[in-house]
Amino acid sequence: MEVLLGVFSQILTLRNLADKGKLEDEALEIISNGGIWVENGKIKKVGNFEQLAKEANNQEVEILEFPYADLVALPGFVDCHTHIAFAGNRAKDYALRIAGESYLNIAKAGGGILDSVRKTRQATENELIANTRQRADFLLRQGVTTIEVKSGYGLSVEEELKILRAIQRASLLTTADLVPTCLAAHTLPPEFSDKSAYLEHLANDLLPILLQENLCKRIDIFVEETAFPYQIAKDYLLKAKNLGFELTIHADQFTTGGSRLAVELNALSADHLEASQDIEIQMLAKSETVAVVLPGASLGLGMNFAPTRQLLDVGACVAISTDWNPGSAPMGDLLLQASVLAASQKLSTAETLAGITFRAAKALNLHHSKGRLQNGFSADIAIFPTKDYREILYWQGQMKPIIVWKNDKFVEF
Ligand code: NIG
Ligand code: FE
After folding, report:
1. What string of H, E and C letters represents the secondary structure of the chain?
2. What GO terms fall under cellular component here (predicted)?
3. Is the pTM of this model over 0.90?
4. Domains of the chain with CATH codes
């Protein structure tokens, strides 16, 4: 099936932007009066609408002209770090936090991640499928067409499998592409008192099943003294790597260590980085590991943003994601968070858009097919009701796409 879409006041292809480092807005390729020619879910050509229409008229191509005067087309966004497969909420924790209690103290007192574990264990697989699908669709309405989804509120073989199976089933029900990640190493479950013993159990009894059932090919861990310290995390990740899994790490959220491990193991990404210092920032910049910053967690916890400007200045590949989860980041609005981060950290529009498109795709090893409007890439397109792309960040997430195009059709909301 071939379709020519248009007419777009502006198409931002992002196809010529560098994988890493600083980006100036002058580098943005903007096609005026543009058209996008798609074939079987992929982009065939991007260019001037009139010229493409002439070509299309000579062939069996459907021409779809939208009934709007002002439209800006961007690559569908990629949210490369979420925890949307959970049950219940943590409004009680949030009330305590805004009144001054710390995230770590709340966790010690029985709130925090283990509270969501209790609620998620009580939920059926069907409830988790419905929750995950609903949240994926909420992101899709914002133009997010690819969404990473972590397990991590099960913390036993059986419960982690329940969550990952639910993510797999939800991916058949939403139009967004879901990328599953196993975060069984989120925190120590109540059934264990020894962190190494728990991780050894996961490596022996869970990871092989994930491969057999084809449930996910990515492993994550929360590296922190209060969760899993550097050395025992390293032992676990090495086992996962030997089994062929891709790696990602919750790194440097409160203390450093995680990002160093991510670089040493050539992980796809090191995520959080609020506590990263010059040495970690330099290390990430020299590596191929994507630095994923999570403004939603900073907003949810009332903490500083990760040093995003510095990371870009020294040459890191920076992605921006929601971290949507019931505890630290309950909001789930990628564009709002990216806009606020950009205003605070002084990011250019090009850097901000790169962070939620092809640079986030790199954190998922999908940068050869997602995140740029380029021949051969997925035709995942977020279309906004404006003639000036700068309005998209200006409205700080309040301007939503009017059309999301994916899998050869309009996404029905
Ligand atoms: O990325 N830091 C660890 N994990 C999550 C929070 C999970 C939760 O609080 O439920 C995060 O912020
Ligand atoms: Fe997270």
Report:
1. CEEEEEEEEEEECCCCCCCCCCCCHHHCCEEEEEEEEEECCEEEEEEEHHHHHHHHHCCCCEEEECCCCCCEEEECEEECCCCCCCCCCCHHHHHHHHCCCCHHHHHHCCCCHHHHHHHHHHCCHHHHHHHHHHHHHHHHHCCEEEEEEECCCCCCHHHHHHHHHHHHHHHHHCCCEEEEEEEEECCCCCCCCCHHHHHHHHHHHCHHHHHHCCCCCEEEEEECCCCECHHHHHHHHHHHHHCCCEEEEEECCCCCCHHHHHHHCCCCEEEECCCCCHHHHHHHHHCCCEEEECHHHHHHHCCCCCCHHHHHHCCCCEEECCCCCCCCCCCCCHHHHHHHHHHHHCCCHHHHHHHCCHHHHHHCCCCCCCCCCCCCCECCEEEECCCCCHHHHHCCCCCCCCEEEECCEECCC
2. cytoplasm
3. yes
4. 2-75+372-410 (2.30.40.10), 78-363 (3.20.20.140)
Q: How far is the CA of 81 from the centre of ligand 2 (A)?
A: 6
Report ipTM for this prediction: 0.96
Structure tokens at 199: 């991780």
Ligand nearest, relative to CA of residue 300? 1
- Dmax over CA atoms of the chain, in Å, equals 70
Amino acid present at 337 = Q
**Rounded distance between C-alpha atoms, residue 333 and residue 329, angstroms:** 10
Nearest alpha carbon, ligand 1 atom 6? 328
Encoding tokens for residue 333?
A: 């609005």
SS3 call for 40: coil
Token duo for residue 66: 């939208």
CB 287 within 8 A of CB 313: no
Q: Mean pLDDT per segment of 10 residues, for the chain of length 413 residues?
A: 96 98 98 98 98 91 95 98 98 96 89 96 98 98 98 98 98 98 98 98 98 98 97 98 98 98 98 98 98 98 97 99 98 98 98 99 98 98 98 98 95 78
180: amino acid identity, one letter:
P
Distance from C-alpha of 91 to C-alpha of 41, rounded to nearest angstrom: 40
Query: Residue 327 C-alpha to ligand 1 middle, in angstroms?
Result: 6
Q: Which residue has the tokens 């065939």?
A: 44
Euclidean distance between CA atoms 52 and 186, whole angstroms: 50
Which of 113, 220, 324 most suits a substitution to test ligand 1, by most atoms within 8 Å of the C-beta?
Answer: 113
